[in-house]
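Pilot study result, target chain (269 residues):
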Amino acid sequence: MRAVGRSAAFFDLDKTVIAKSSALAFGRPFYRDGLISRRDVVKSAYAQLMFRLGGTDEQAMARTRDYLAALCKGWQVDQVRQIVAETLHELINPYVYAEAAALIEEHQAAGRDVVLVSASGEEIVRPIGELLGVADVIATRMAVVDGRYSGEVEFYAAGPAKVEAVRKLAAERGYDLAESYAYSDSITDRPLLECVGHPTAVNPDRGLRKLATEQGWPILEFRHPVPLGRRLRERPAVPVAAAAIGVGVGVAIGIAWYGRHRRARAGTT
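Predicted structure:
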């Protein structure tokens, strides 16, 4: 009989744990502090709408990675961290799904480590994890030289790279991935979901919904973003069972989507 080791629960962040793009949410304060232009803010707002309607694909994610390097070059890391710290409760806290927070607590109560796995920058993901009581994150890391982003992406936490990082962490911690859990909304996270024994689709896009139905994976719909203060006052929040029915990256994502949409429109005119 195979020995069973420790298990963990891996959560994608955007549209799985929170009801918006974590990185796109900081577009306005980045503009206020002079990191991006007004034009970038407009593109980010458009991208936020597209994100809600359909998500993204791996090609767009690759374009995002490449643009991200150029966009963030020269930014002061401490400035970005300060912006996130000052605006986190306003921009992120109200959008955490009550169902996701309850599910995270259930895994923790069962003795599992919970890990946030996101393509957004670590400077954004780690504070969100702290807000949720989650200490471990796998996120995009930008190279830093003399306190500023150098223009290189050290690690881009998207697609298969997520799985590599998950497997590395599992080896270090002794997690049994066959006994572990993963949650995501996007078909681009298929490798992540397939590397664990208990995959679940949350608010899935069309591709992931089709895959989950074919594979017989559980599908959850999270619909109740509730600020942390209300969750603490009104526990239990929204029962998870009731929901079951069967980049530093953000600004760059916005520009990638915006450009793709403009090119598509140009091609039809």
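One observation from the pilot: The chain is about 50% helix and 15% strand. A full batch analysis is planned for the follow-on phase.
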